[in-house]
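1st attempt posting a full record on here, be nice pls
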Amino acid sequence: MSYEIKQDGKFKYIEEGQGEPLMLLHGLFGALSNFMDLIEHFKKTHTVIVPILPLLELDLLHTSVGGLQKFVHKFIEHRNYNQIHLMGNSLGGHVALVHILKHPERIKTLTLTGSSGLFENGMGDTYPKRGDKEYIRKKTELTFFDPKMATEDLVNEVFEITNNRLKVIKIISLAKSAIRNNLGEELREIKQPVCLIWGNNDSITPPFVAKEFNRLIPNSELHFIDKCGHAPMMEVPGEFNMILSAFLAKQHSPAATN
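the predicted structure (as C-alpha coordinates):
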Protein backbone atom coordinates (compact mmCIF):
# COMPACT_ATOMS: atom_id res chain seq x y z
CA MET A 1 0.00 0.00 0.00
CA SER A 2 1.46 3.37 -0.98
CA TYR A 3 0.10 6.79 -0.11
CA GLU A 4 0.37 10.14 -1.81
CA ILE A 5 3.03 12.32 -0.19
CA LYS A 6 1.54 15.82 -0.13
CA GLN A 7 3.49 19.05 -0.01
CA ASP A 8 2.40 22.31 1.61
CA GLY A 9 5.17 24.89 1.65
CA LYS A 10 8.28 23.21 3.06
CA PHE A 11 6.27 20.41 4.68
CA LYS A 12 5.86 16.92 3.22
CA TYR A 13 3.30 14.61 4.78
CA ILE A 14 0.70 11.90 4.31
CA GLU A 15 -2.91 12.72 5.15
CA GLU A 16 -5.57 10.02 4.83
CA GLY A 17 -9.16 9.64 6.07
CA GLN A 18 -11.55 11.91 7.98
CA GLY A 19 -12.21 12.67 11.63
CA GLU A 20 -10.14 13.98 14.52
CA PRO A 21 -6.43 14.23 13.61
CA LEU A 22 -4.23 11.28 14.55
CA MET A 23 -0.63 12.41 13.99
CA LEU A 24 2.15 9.81 13.85
CA LEU A 25 5.81 10.69 14.46
CA HIS A 26 8.41 8.18 13.28
CA GLY A 27 11.75 7.36 14.91
CA LEU A 28 15.39 7.80 13.90
CA PHE A 29 15.40 4.99 11.31
CA GLY A 30 11.64 5.14 10.87
CA ALA A 31 10.10 4.94 7.46
CA LEU A 32 6.52 5.47 6.34
CA SER A 33 6.23 1.69 6.00
CA ASN A 34 6.36 1.53 9.84
CA PHE A 35 2.87 2.99 9.95
CA MET A 36 1.10 1.29 7.02
CA ASP A 37 -1.12 -0.92 9.20
CA LEU A 38 -2.01 2.02 11.45
CA ILE A 39 -2.93 4.25 8.52
CA GLU A 40 -5.13 1.55 6.97
CA HIS A 41 -6.92 0.89 10.28
CA PHE A 42 -7.41 4.42 11.57
CA LYS A 43 -8.18 6.29 8.33
CA LYS A 44 -11.72 4.90 8.70
CA THR A 45 -12.24 6.92 11.91
CA HIS A 46 -9.60 9.66 11.92
CA THR A 47 -7.63 11.99 9.70
CA VAL A 48 -4.29 10.18 9.88
CA ILE A 49 -1.32 12.51 9.38
CA VAL A 50 2.31 11.45 9.06
CA PRO A 51 4.67 14.42 8.73
CA ILE A 52 8.00 13.43 7.18
CA LEU A 53 10.47 14.58 9.81
CA PRO A 54 13.65 16.21 8.42
CA LEU A 55 15.90 13.95 10.52
CA LEU A 56 18.85 14.34 8.20
CA GLU A 57 17.97 17.61 6.44
CA LEU A 58 18.29 20.11 9.29
CA ASP A 59 21.59 21.96 9.76
CA LEU A 60 23.81 20.43 12.44
CA LEU A 61 22.93 23.11 14.99
CA HIS A 62 19.23 22.13 14.84
CA THR A 63 19.74 18.38 14.42
CA SER A 64 18.34 17.68 17.87
CA VAL A 65 15.13 16.67 19.66
CA GLY A 66 14.42 20.39 20.17
CA GLY A 67 14.98 21.16 16.47
CA LEU A 68 12.56 18.41 15.43
CA GLN A 69 10.00 19.61 17.98
CA LYS A 70 10.14 23.12 16.48
CA PHE A 71 9.55 21.61 13.03
CA VAL A 72 6.48 19.67 14.30
CA HIS A 73 5.14 22.81 16.01
CA LYS A 74 5.49 24.85 12.79
CA PHE A 75 3.81 22.06 10.81
CA ILE A 76 0.83 21.92 13.22
CA GLU A 77 0.47 25.73 13.18
CA HIS A 78 0.82 25.91 9.40
CA ARG A 79 -1.81 23.23 8.84
CA ASN A 80 -3.97 24.55 11.72
CA TYR A 81 -4.72 21.11 13.21
CA ASN A 82 -6.62 21.01 16.52
CA GLN A 83 -7.70 18.30 18.99
CA ILE A 84 -4.75 16.18 17.85
CA HIS A 85 -4.20 12.61 19.01
CA LEU A 86 -0.39 12.60 18.90
CA MET A 87 1.52 9.32 18.69
CA GLY A 88 5.27 8.75 18.56
CA ASN A 89 7.58 5.75 18.29
CA SER A 90 11.15 5.81 19.63
CA LEU A 91 12.69 9.25 18.88
CA GLY A 92 9.28 10.32 17.52
CA GLY A 93 7.82 9.68 21.00
CA HIS A 94 10.52 11.87 22.54
CA VAL A 95 9.70 14.69 20.08
CA ALA A 96 5.98 14.27 20.93
CA LEU A 97 6.76 14.55 24.67
CA VAL A 98 8.81 17.74 24.25
CA HIS A 99 6.03 19.15 22.05
CA ILE A 100 3.20 18.45 24.52
CA LEU A 101 5.23 20.02 27.34
CA LYS A 102 5.91 23.19 25.32
CA HIS A 103 2.66 23.46 23.33
CA PRO A 104 -0.14 21.46 25.01
CA GLU A 105 -2.99 23.59 23.65
CA ARG A 106 -3.73 21.69 20.40
CA ILE A 107 -3.07 18.17 21.74
CA LYS A 108 -5.98 16.03 22.94
CA THR A 109 -4.16 12.77 23.76
CA LEU A 110 -0.66 11.32 23.57
CA THR A 111 0.38 7.75 22.74
CA LEU A 112 3.96 6.56 23.20
CA THR A 113 5.49 3.32 22.01
CA GLY A 114 9.15 2.49 22.63
CA SER A 115 9.77 6.18 23.34
CA SER A 116 13.07 7.70 24.34
CA GLY A 117 13.06 10.58 26.83
CA LEU A 118 14.08 8.71 29.97
CA PHE A 119 16.50 5.97 28.90
CA GLU A 120 17.47 4.14 25.75
CA ASN A 121 20.16 1.74 24.54
CA GLY A 122 21.62 3.35 21.44
CA MET A 123 23.69 1.93 18.60
CA GLY A 124 26.46 1.32 21.15
CA ASP A 125 29.57 3.25 22.15
CA THR A 126 31.19 2.96 18.76
CA TYR A 127 29.79 3.44 15.32
CA PRO A 128 30.51 0.79 12.69
CA LYS A 129 32.91 1.31 9.84
CA ARG A 130 30.99 2.37 6.83
CA GLY A 131 30.19 -0.59 4.66
CA ASP A 132 29.67 -3.06 7.52
CA LYS A 133 26.29 -4.36 6.41
CA GLU A 134 26.27 -7.35 8.79
CA TYR A 135 26.61 -5.00 11.76
CA ILE A 136 23.64 -2.99 10.47
CA ARG A 137 21.63 -6.18 9.94
CA LYS A 138 22.24 -7.31 13.53
CA LYS A 139 21.37 -3.88 14.94
CA THR A 140 18.19 -3.73 12.83
CA GLU A 141 17.20 -7.21 14.04
CA LEU A 142 17.56 -6.01 17.66
CA THR A 143 14.62 -3.68 17.04
CA PHE A 144 12.28 -6.68 16.90
CA PHE A 145 11.43 -9.76 18.94
CA ASP A 146 11.34 -11.72 15.69
CA PRO A 147 14.58 -11.01 13.74
CA LYS A 148 12.78 -11.95 10.49
CA MET A 149 10.98 -8.59 10.76
CA ALA A 150 14.29 -7.02 9.70
CA THR A 151 13.62 -7.59 6.00
CA GLU A 152 16.26 -7.04 3.34
CA ASP A 153 14.47 -3.82 2.30
CA LEU A 154 14.57 -2.49 5.86
CA VAL A 155 18.25 -3.42 6.32
CA ASN A 156 19.11 -1.79 2.96
CA GLU A 157 17.25 1.38 4.00
CA VAL A 158 19.23 1.67 7.26
CA PHE A 159 22.48 0.65 5.52
CA GLU A 160 22.06 3.39 2.91
CA ILE A 161 21.67 6.03 5.66
CA THR A 162 24.63 4.80 7.70
CA ASN A 163 26.86 4.61 4.62
CA ASN A 164 26.80 8.39 4.20
CA ARG A 165 29.30 10.26 6.37
CA LEU A 166 27.22 13.42 6.91
CA LYS A 167 24.10 11.38 7.66
CA VAL A 168 26.06 9.35 10.24
CA ILE A 169 27.20 12.58 11.94
CA LYS A 170 23.58 13.75 12.08
CA ILE A 171 22.33 10.41 13.43
CA ILE A 172 24.95 10.54 16.21
CA SER A 173 23.98 14.16 16.91
CA LEU A 174 20.29 13.17 17.25
CA ALA A 175 21.10 10.15 19.41
CA LYS A 176 23.27 12.25 21.75
CA SER A 177 20.59 14.94 21.89
CA ALA A 178 18.02 12.31 22.95
CA ILE A 179 20.28 11.09 25.76
CA ARG A 180 20.98 14.67 26.96
CA ASN A 181 17.33 15.69 26.76
CA ASN A 182 16.15 13.58 29.70
CA LEU A 183 12.67 14.68 30.76
CA GLY A 184 12.33 13.06 34.19
CA GLU A 185 10.15 14.99 36.62
CA GLU A 186 8.91 17.38 33.88
CA LEU A 187 6.60 14.58 32.75
CA ARG A 188 4.36 15.23 35.79
CA GLU A 189 3.19 18.42 34.04
CA ILE A 190 1.40 16.52 31.24
CA LYS A 191 -2.37 16.90 31.72
CA GLN A 192 -3.68 14.99 28.68
CA PRO A 193 -4.62 11.29 28.76
CA VAL A 194 -1.57 9.23 27.76
CA CYS A 195 -1.48 5.67 26.41
CA LEU A 196 1.79 3.71 26.72
CA ILE A 197 2.00 0.66 24.44
CA TRP A 198 5.21 -1.31 24.94
CA GLY A 199 6.83 -4.48 23.72
CA ASN A 200 7.68 -6.79 26.61
CA ASN A 201 10.86 -7.73 24.74
CA ASP A 202 11.99 -4.20 23.84
CA SER A 203 15.78 -4.16 24.29
CA ILE A 204 16.22 -0.50 23.21
CA THR A 205 13.77 1.09 25.66
CA PRO A 206 13.22 -1.88 28.02
CA PRO A 207 9.96 -2.47 29.98
CA PHE A 208 11.26 -0.64 33.07
CA VAL A 209 11.28 2.56 30.94
CA ALA A 210 7.55 2.14 30.24
CA LYS A 211 6.86 1.62 33.97
CA GLU A 212 8.78 4.80 34.80
CA PHE A 213 6.81 6.78 32.19
CA ASN A 214 3.62 5.36 33.73
CA ARG A 215 4.75 6.40 37.23
CA LEU A 216 5.71 9.93 36.20
CA ILE A 217 2.86 10.83 33.81
CA PRO A 218 -0.27 11.45 35.93
CA ASN A 219 -3.09 10.45 33.54
CA SER A 220 -1.41 7.47 31.85
CA GLU A 221 -2.25 3.85 31.19
CA LEU A 222 0.28 1.14 30.34
CA HIS A 223 -0.16 -1.86 28.04
CA PHE A 224 2.51 -4.50 27.46
CA ILE A 225 2.51 -6.79 24.43
CA ASP A 226 4.32 -10.13 24.69
CA LYS A 227 6.78 -11.40 22.07
CA CYS A 228 7.24 -7.87 20.80
CA GLY A 229 10.24 -5.54 20.53
CA HIS A 230 10.78 -1.81 20.00
CA ALA A 231 8.22 -1.21 17.22
CA PRO A 232 4.87 -2.79 18.28
CA MET A 233 2.91 -0.99 15.54
CA MET A 234 5.01 -2.91 12.98
CA GLU A 235 5.52 -6.24 14.74
CA VAL A 236 2.03 -6.81 16.18
CA PRO A 237 -0.18 -4.27 14.37
CA GLY A 238 -3.47 -6.06 15.15
CA GLU A 239 -2.95 -5.97 18.91
CA PHE A 240 -1.47 -2.47 18.80
CA ASN A 241 -4.43 -1.09 16.82
CA MET A 242 -6.90 -2.75 19.21
CA ILE A 243 -5.29 -1.11 22.27
CA LEU A 244 -5.05 2.29 20.60
CA SER A 245 -8.65 2.07 19.26
CA ALA A 246 -9.98 1.34 22.76
CA PHE A 247 -7.96 4.22 24.22
CA LEU A 248 -9.16 6.71 21.59
CA ALA A 249 -12.78 5.50 21.91
CA LYS A 250 -12.66 6.32 25.65
CA GLN A 251 -11.84 9.94 24.81
CA HIS A 252 -15.25 10.23 23.12
CA SER A 253 -17.17 8.75 26.03
CA PRO A 254 -18.95 10.98 28.61
CA ALA A 255 -16.40 9.87 31.24
CA ALA A 256 -13.69 11.63 29.23
CA THR A 257 -15.21 15.04 30.03
CA ASN A 258 -15.15 14.61 33.81
